[in-house]
Amino acid sequence: MGRLNNISGKDAVKAFQKAGWQPIGQVGSHLVMVKPGMRANLSIPQHRELSVGTLRALIRHSELTVEEFLTLL
To answer: What CATH number does residue 19 fall under?
Structure first.
């Protein structure tokens, strides 16, 4: 399993965009992303460094594996 540390919100957004997620707006410091065919929305904090638990939850909701996410970075 890969390492999920020192990933910024901006980098996470780029990786999710490669997986087909599209930004639809921003609420405060969180960017909201959607993907056609998915019921869940991703709310990604735009922080310099995301906590590992938050990042793992976002990856789980996007139905990706950690390895798939790391290859998209």
So the answer is: 3.30.920.30
